[in-house]
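Action item from last meeting closed. Structure (263 res):
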């Protein structure tokens, strides 16, 4: 009986610690995997003000609003905008405009990241683009990792030009269960990002990209998201990619073909 009591106390303690520390486990604004890539694409640094009066840093690249689509890039749960330079440099050679924003609490922005807060940040970016003259039908929402949960949320029942999900998860509940299978995750988790319940509300063309050896978000999650998505849908699944997919010629070719199909 005493052993069971000790086990219960340990279990309860772990659950309590996880509950109160979960956002520091989920969001990593100070993590840095930036390899000092040189920014070769031209950008303007802009500020986007959210409804709760938080200023967000954004990098904006404008080629031609009338003839080219505009990517709204929503990054993952770790690092700064500089961590995405190796990706956005490639947009220079595509017929595309882009805006990449840093979440609240990231890249020097004030505030603390939460699920609701990130949804507000992304919607604020959409409103900023609309004020610049970019209509939703010309915006391609690109979500990376955690950003796929935000992209799926804002894409529901909207007429965006297209949606790109790189290394998506079905829900944060499933992702957390993968790491903590013995805990009552559904009841503990504050930020659930239930993308699998929302993706069928997306009517825009969608491209889902995932590597089969992803060690952070299991490949089956990306495959399930593709399976339950509406047509028109496209996939880019590779045998070799881990969570941060390689921006090689095959991936870039897939991106360009998808973007071209939206015109």
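Sequence:
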């Amino acid at each position: 009986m005493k052993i069971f009591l000790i086990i219960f106390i340990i279990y309860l303690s772990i659950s309590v610690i996880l509950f109160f520390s979960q956002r520091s486990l989920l969001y990593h604004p100070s993590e840095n995997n930036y390899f000092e890539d040189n920014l070769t694409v031209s950008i303007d640094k802009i500020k986007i003000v959210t409804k709760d009066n938080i200023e967000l840093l954004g990098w904006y690249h404008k080629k031609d609003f009338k003839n080219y689509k505009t990517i709204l890039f929503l990054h993952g749960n770790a690092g700064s905008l500089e961590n995405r330079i190796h990706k956005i440099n490639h947009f220079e050679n595509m017929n595309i405009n882009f805006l990449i924003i840093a979440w609240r609490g990231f890249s020097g922005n004030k505030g603390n990241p939460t699920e609701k807060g990130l949804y507000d940040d992304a919607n604020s970016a959409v409103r900023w683009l609309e004020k610049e003259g970019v209509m939703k039908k010309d915006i391609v929402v690109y979500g990376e990792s955690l950003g796929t949960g935000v992209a799926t949320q804002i894409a529901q029942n909207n007429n965006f030009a297209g949606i790109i999900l790189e290394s998506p998860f079905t829900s944060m509940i499933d992702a957390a269960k993968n790491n903590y299978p013995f805990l009552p995750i559904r009841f503990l988790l504050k930020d659930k990002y239930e993308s699998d319940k929302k993706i069928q509300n997306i009517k825009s063309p969608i491209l889902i990209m995932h590597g089969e050896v992803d060690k952070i978000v299991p490949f089956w999650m990306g495959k399930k998201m593709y399976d339950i998505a509406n047509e028109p849908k496209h996939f880019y699944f590779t045998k070799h990619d881990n969570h941060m997919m390689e921006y090689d010629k095959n991936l870039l070719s897939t991106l360009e073909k998808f973007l071209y199909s939206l015109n």
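Note appended to the action item: The beta strands are 44-49, 55-61, 69-74, 96-101, 139-144, 162-166, 206-211, 233-238.
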